[in-house]
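Support request from a user on the community tier.

User writes: "When I paste my C-alpha cells into the form, the page sometimes reloads and wipes my input. The last time it worked, I copied everything first. Here is what I submitted, just in case something in the input itself triggers the reload:"
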C-alpha cells in the first residue's frame, strides 16, 4: 500500500499538536497511531493521509480579471494518522 498523497513532517518539539490527546505534563510526547507506542519528544512524528477524496478546484482570477490559477482536479485529505518514523518507514516500503 502506498500512501504518498501528502506527507507533512512535524517536529514534536515545535509545539504543533492536536489538542486534547496528550496528558498534561508530557505535551510533546505522542502515541503512534500505528504501533500505539508512546514516542519521546525528541522523535519527530509524521502525518500520513489514510483517506483522500477528489476535489475540483475552480479557476481563480485577480481583481483585474486575469487568470492567476487555472484550477483543475486534485485530492484533499479527509483523515490522517500520526505515526513514528519507524512505522512511516514500513509504510513507505510496503
Ligand atoms: Zn509507530
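"...and here is what came back when it finally went through:"
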Amino acid at each position: 500500500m502506498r500512501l504518498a498523497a501528502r506527507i507533512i513532517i512535524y517536529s514534536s518539539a515545535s509545539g504543533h499538536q492536536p489538542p486534547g490527546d496528550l496528558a498534561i505534563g508530557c505535551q510533546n510526547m505522542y502515541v503512534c497511531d500505528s504501533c500505539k507506542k508512546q514516542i519521546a519528544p525528541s522523535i519527530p512524528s509524521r502525518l500520513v493521509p489514510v483517506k483522500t477524496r477528489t476535489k475540483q478546484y475552480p479557476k481563480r482570477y485577480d481583481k483585474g480579471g486575469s487568470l492567476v490559477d487555472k484550477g483543475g482536479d486534485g485530492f484533499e485529505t479527509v483523515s490522517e494518522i500520526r505515526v513514528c518514523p519507524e512505522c512511516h518507514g514500513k509504510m513507505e516500503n510496503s
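Agent notes: The reload is a front-end session timeout and is unrelated to the input. Residues 29 and 40 are 5 Å apart (CA to CA). Residues 8-93 form one domain. Escalated to web team.
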